[in-house]
Amino acid sequence: MKKAIVTGANGYIGSTLIKEMQKNNIEVIAVVRNKDSKNNTLPENVKIVYCELDSISSLIDLVPDNDIDVFYHLAWEGTSGGDRANYQVQLLNAQYACDSAIAAKKLNCKKFICTGTITEKIAENILNIEVKAENTIYGIAKHTAHCLLDVLCKKLDLPFVWARLSNIYGGHNETGNIISYTLQELRKGNKPSFSKAEQPYDLMYVNDAAKALYLLGKEVTSENCYFIGSGSPRILKEYLLALKDVYGNGAELGIGEKPEDGLKYYWEWFDTTDFVRDTKFDAANTFEENILETILGLTNGKMQTT
């Protein structure tokens, strides 16, 4: 891989991926929505192309390059907050993912990579479970996009990889996911509240996630779907208690204070065997080391992403 295009380039994971690729001398074309978008997370020397998601098919006119190796589609509206339950927003995302694949084909890209979520596994069985939490709409839309792309990319004869992510933490994460929420509350002097936190989880450091995505583009991949994780899943409560110990300062956690949501996760969902086999990925540090770096970044008044 010598050249790549990234949508959602100024986002949490996208900007970290670009820095990882630049470290490996990959030329990157960063696609962001418009000139009013915040680009302060992007390196100064990256080539930026402005294109709204609903106009993603116009990339063929905006990008003159015809030697792009990998197209990373990371752009997705409503990854946090109330829009995760907005079916209109989420369904449009699935359409934009397909539009991006068509654009990738027209740009003669050699591989198309799109990111998913572990909650797709719940979406796969949504009709057979009693819990109908609105937030599962996000996972349902991701699962829908995955299914559509699997069919579409075969029709286009476009090599396709679906990278299923779990909870990503570290860096400038403002999504409000489990670690982001916990650290925000602790910094305010509050006690964050949780359910019993007895589900298996795999929390992955954002720099590791960026490295993993880079390797998916660089290496020959034999599967069209991989779970991308640290390779060391734990019970969520264990992660939270480890964070509490690293944070110190008399931090308190309200484990068991919230009701269970009824959604079940399974250890086998976090299996990275195929991914490690094809990419030789190995997480650089432990959760404790990464969470300490994250906390120090917050304490110093900046969010570290490199």
Automatic annotation (TrEMBL):
The residue ranges of the NAD-dependent epimerase/dehydratase domain are 5-220
**Top-level division of the source organism's lineage:** Bacteria
- Pfam families hit by this protein: Epimerase
Chain coiled-coil ranges:
none
User: Family per UniProt?
Assistant: Belongs to the NAD(P)-dependent epimerase/dehydratase family.
* Name of the featured protein: NAD(P)-dependent oxidoreductase
